[in-house]
Amino acid sequence: MDIMPKWADVVLIPLISLILAAILSALVILGIGEDPVAAVKLMVTGALGSTYGWGYTLYYATNFMFTGLAVAVAFHASMFNIGGEGQAMLGGLGVALICLFVPWPHWSIAILGAIAASALFGAAWAAIPAYLQARRGSHIVITTIMFNFIAAALLNYVLVNLLRPKGAMDPATAKFPAATNLPTLHELLAPFGISFSKSAPANISLIVAVLACFGVWALIWRTRLGYEIRAFGKSESGARYAGISPFKITMLAMLISGGLAGMMAINNVMGEAERLVLNAVEGAGFIGIAVSLMGRNHPFGVFLAAILFGFLYQGGAELALWTNIPRELIVVIQALVILFTGALDNMVRIPLERMFLALRKTEG
Amino acid sequence: MDYLTLLQVLDSTVRLATPLLLACLAGLFSERAGIFDIGLEGKMLLAAFFSAAVAYLTGSVWLGLLAGIGSSMVLAGLHGLASITFRGNQLISGVAINFLAAGMTVLIAQDWFKQGGRTPSLIGGARFEPITLPLADTLHPVPVIGPLYHDLISGHTILVYVAFLCVPATWWVLYRTRFGLRLRAVGENPAAVDTAGVSVVGLRYAAVAICGILCGIAGAYLATALQAGFVKDMTAGRGYIALAALIFAKWRPWYALSSTLLFGLLQAVALRYQNIDLGGVVIPVQVMDALPYILTVVILAGFVGKAIPPRAGGEPYVKER
What we know:
Membrane topology (chain B): Multi-pass membrane protein
Number of strands of chain B: 2
Strand content of chain A: under 5%
Order of helices and strands of chain B: HHHHHHHHHHHHEEH
Protein name (chain B): ABC transporter permease
Helix content of chain A: over 70%
Subcellular location (chain B): Cell membrane
Radius of gyration of chain B: 20 Å
Number of helices of chain B: 13
Structural class of chain A: mainly alpha
Number of helices of chain A: 16
Radius of gyration of chain A: 21 Å
Subcellular location (chain A): Cell membrane
Largest sheet of chain B: 2 strands, antiparallel
Number of domains of chain B: 1
Keywords (chain B): Cell membrane, Membrane, Transmembrane, Transmembrane helix
Number of strands of chain A: 0
Distance between the termini of chain B: 66 Å
Oligomer: heterodimer
């Protein structure tokens, strides 16, 4: 029998952790001589007060959904995929290659090709660490960190030496052809009579991200493979006795994880920049860790947490624009969320469990 | 390449290897005690900022060093709290610490100095000055050995010599003292240490604290000796390279010296030559950038010798009841 009811585990603990992170963030804002209440107001109006703000919030959220799902799938197999950053970089390379060198007639076909290419490249980048973990016992955390750096160097090389158009100075590819440009929410919502900001970057990838959330939910809780991933994550020896191949699960879980991280590129590379630049990922791979931890590795939780972080990102940009609070405040909030929902989980959990035990005794 | 150029490259190798060496030894203490630490980067970064900030404000580099060590130890304490006391995930705690440092340094730097997340340039007593070893100038004219002594061995800041002395010191502590034996034991089999009546928690906190001190010195070296002041994200992945060096060194102090020197050499070469032309085959600079990581993956894969981490690494210790 569980010590705590399920709702406490799923809702109460993340909520308390979030409140703790929020209190500390407020103290940080106070510490640098700014008003936390005014800051929150500015963030809310900046990120949610207009369709322009929403457009950015949802754009960032789309990125974080993909990377958050990537981390979550690996977590279910009890692996910590820190390599989302590198996998998303490679996904971007896949999207760039397929958009530049395949003459797509229409975006609706191009996006299918881009999804396949980005997932393939992302999965390929996760495949080597996964293989090394499964066959050679190298720790996946260390290898995926190393692969982030190798990906950065590789991308740098490819952009500077191979894909940069002649005469261009900055390390970036040429603009993708117009036929591959994805429709933004402005274009998608216009037929329904909803006017949405023209300049916001949120695009059809958002729908792909939401579908991916459903897909991961179905995979983890409604398929045999998902069951095997969860069984393997809970107990490797138990799974082995049940005839589940650790090699197969490690590989498949990491390939799916890497593929999801890579798919982020259809949003930021194909949907927004419409060319591949050097720092296209902008740390979204790492934010996936915070998103997954906060979302308790559940796709719906990841969906909500991604929107929260999208709000924080857009709100943080507004703060940097209008106040003296630098954008790095978001990095601090991100760190606090990871700290409280991930590393210091027991700090919140143990007192709560004691409380529930005490309550049960008085009732019984 | 003539002799003097070689000396210059080696000299910059020593300079660049120093922070890696300090951070690598820091990680060695922590991981030998069974606490994984991917937060080396964050601890160095915070220490770099506070050492530069305090050195600038007080004009004393030594106070700066103390502040750097102190700030690094605060983060080390946080890591200990999360991974020892609350038995949380050590890797996640390390990631959080890295982001915390990356964000806080810019926030505080902007609040204090309003220069876009950096400290003003340090001058005079606010920096560590190079030390000229005795007889360096008199011996300079002596062929071969003179320039070697003058250019390579002499003329570094005190922290460089401290870092190199830390290697035998670490070896001695780990392999020749009772504390070292217990520290290594707690990383291999904490239950046995506990049975012997020695505090697992105490030992692990001690290891994490030593890790904090060394990361603090490494950070202070970056901001007050290698460069003159703090700039945003100035550690630039050095904490991760140190981690790679630690694996490369198979968690041993003398190997740590050679692996950090190797990675320092790679950095020095990448800094000096953009693309290296080896008789027709051009090695792009990005290969040099990626080489430490590629080498580490190869080592980790066990193709060239096997790197076996301390057995209890990453697992919180739960006392038997």
